[in-house]
Amino acid sequence: MIEGKIISFYREKRQMTQRDLGIGICSSTHVSKIERGLTEYSIEVLNLLANRLQVDLKKEIETYYSIKSMLHDWMNAIIMRQKKKAERIKLQLEEIELLELSDFQQSFKLIHIRYSMLIGHFSDVPLMLREMEKEMNLSSLDANLLLHSKAIYLMQFKRDYQLAMVLLRQIDESSYPYHEYYYHLALNHHFLRQHIYAYKYASRSLEYFMKTNNFVRIIDAKMLILVLLEYDHLNEDKGEVYRSMLEMTETLGLHDQHSFILHNYAYHQLAHHRYGEAMELYKRSMRLKDPQSSVYLESLEGYVHAASKSGKKSVRILLEQVEAGLGLAEELQDERHVHLFKLHRFRILDQPDDYYGYLENYAYPYFSTNGMHRLKEYYHIQLYHHFMKTGQIEKANSFSRSYIEPVKQYDVFA
Prior knowledge:
By secondary structure, the chain is mainly α. The chain contains 23 helices and no strands. The radius of gyration is 28 Å and the shape is elongated. 32% of the residues are buried.
């Protein structure tokens, strides 16, 4: 019974024994049974116990039931990326004493992991996940939430898409109301180059976000669908779609989504060899980002790539930007971008031997073993043509034509 849990909770907080609480009211044995919900009791006895604890029992019962609702609202605010609302609910929850009950602690800790991701406290996440993995007797909802949170962490910070997929596939959607995980399934299938499944789950996530009036995430889902269509229809110009989405995000004040769409539109222009337009879009995207962040680094690398192709920037300026990007990549311990900027430096300095040597021995193996399929395919083609051009036939043969031919359509940076 809820009443018994509340009596037990406040008795322990007041550092009272069951005997102390029951003096003049009932026996310690009866108090024990009330707390465990093992006996019937009169309202009079319950009120006497609550009065001794200085607790408004009716109010505490209402609070107990409100906590579950608040936890649900907190999770929805996180899914909708409403940082201020999420922070407000978190602070309200932390002021409620009953939150310390075991009934709520597991859910609170799990949602707190998602909250930490939302506000950028990524360093806290691994330890929090390890602690939750030790928890026993998770509810079905909490077990699914743990699977979902671990999968997001693996995707975003470990790039382990295979293991993330295993976890996402274990989620039981019948007992998990947060169908946002369809979006992460779609994203993971996309990273694994499984575009049919990616499109299927991106469409499902769009339906969920529309049903819940989650306008921010509607844009995310539409953006992912647009990216997937880019792969299937690479030669089609989707500029009008990008411009429409940019106008929508600007009108709604969605700065993060606006910068993301700018970045993807820049990539689209780069794929169509419109280097000047790509440079301008990458610059606009960078202006909206934290210059010490990984997302800024992503756009800076794209800008350097487009600028080096355009021939509009001097070698000195390009090298300054490369060194800035390389320094930030090393500071962020972003090995992928360390390799990319080093390759840019060799290319800008017109050092083909160093370029292909570094690519073959360091960069390409890293891209291959870390599930970076687009980069692997792009540089696979480069190495194959380099080996053929320089007469290294055995090495060229090791790069099977059966693998290269199907991916030539994606060689947009050559």
